[in-house]
Amino acid sequence: MPAPARPAPSPVVLLVYPVTLLLGSLFSVISPVARSTRSSSHDPAAPLAPSLAADLHLSESPVNYFARKSNIFNLYFVKVGWIWLTVAFASLVLFQPAYNLSSASHAQQEIRFRRSIQAFLRWCLATIVWYLTTQWFFGPAIIDRSFMITGGKCGQALDLVAKANSESSSVQLETVFTAAACKAAGGAWKGGHDISGHVFMLVLVTALLVFEAVGAGAVAASPSAAPESAGRERKASDPNALPNGDQDASFGTGRTWSMRLVWGVVVLGWWMLFMTAIWFHTWLEKWSGLAIALSTIYVIYILPRRLPPWKDIVGLPGV
Question: Where are the membrane-spanning stretches (predicted)?
Fold first, then answer.
């Protein structure tokens, strides 16, 4: 019997994320462009604490394109990153042999159906963490709550509100403001520890897709898939088999493009993580975002290898 395909990459690959943040942060200190951008601010950044223009009032028109919040990759990729993750993830489940129910025996269909359900559960767990961290946690999201707990507030907007309302009203508003509401009110999120949502989301998205793609790819490359393929080839001369052949070709194309989409999202996600490491947030804010993301990946993809009861629930990609 052939050895089973490796279902997932080694956890060591996750070291690419702290290394990326470290290199980006160091580059932001060493680079003349980054230093000149910070030197043009009204409130210069503390040493070894590179941050985004919006946080430290850097130049309104940063020299580097990726230091601008309005850059096209930030607007149409990072800001809607969970949509890109969902589309890429769905393409794996729809087209990869690890999950595809077409041209499979009854026993294989049961295995693939179980894999699909567990894959969906893994996506749901990651989505819940993303939603609670960045969107809503019984009110403001975890990122917003941590910012306010550490002394942050929506400075400019609250100053305006305080002039028109009583002190108690402004304090109440301060406790319910989210970063999005603050921006919409024309204020600036200042003063607290602002966990990097960009780092959190980009690490979680790229790591999730890598683990899922490697697991699904291992099944496709497994020698155990050969007999099934050979059986389809032997039926090629049968006229009744032609529609299935067309279907196999269609799914073959889908397999190829689903992997291209996944790895495209991963590569672009890593690049934007590197740009975030250079231009956005302080070191501690970036590393706190990284910690939340890697903790989530550990629970979903690493812990099941060591805890069989948890593996029976969430499974492992390709297993």
Answer: 12-34, 81-99, 120-138, 199-222, 261-281, 287-303
pTM, rounded to two decimals: 0.79
45 in a domain, yes or no? yes
pLDDT value at position 7?
58
| Closest by CA position to 183, among listed 209, 157, 220 | 157
**Domain contains 81:** yes
Residue 281 among the catalytic residues: yes
* pLDDT exceeds 60 at position 164: no
- Is residue 55 scored above 70 in pLDDT? no
Q: What are the two backbone dihedrals, phi and then psi, of residue 160, each rounded to the nearest 5 degrees?
A: -70, -40
- Give every CB contact of residue 316 below 8 A, 6+ residues apart in sequence: 7, 8, 215, 301, 304, 305
State the average pLDDT for the chain: 76
Number of domains in the chain: 1
The answer to the question of residue 203 being in a domain is: yes
57 is catalytic: no
For residue 118, the enclosing domain spans 11-152+191-220+243-314
Distance, in Å, from the CA atom of 156 to the CA atom of 213, rounded to the nearest integer, reads: 45
The predicted model gives 287-294 an average pLDDT of 95
Position 157 in a domain: no
What is the number of other CB atoms lying within 10 angstroms of the CB of residue 191? 14
Residues with Cβ within 8 Å of residue 286, at least 6 apart in sequence: 21, 25, 196, 199, 276, 277, 280
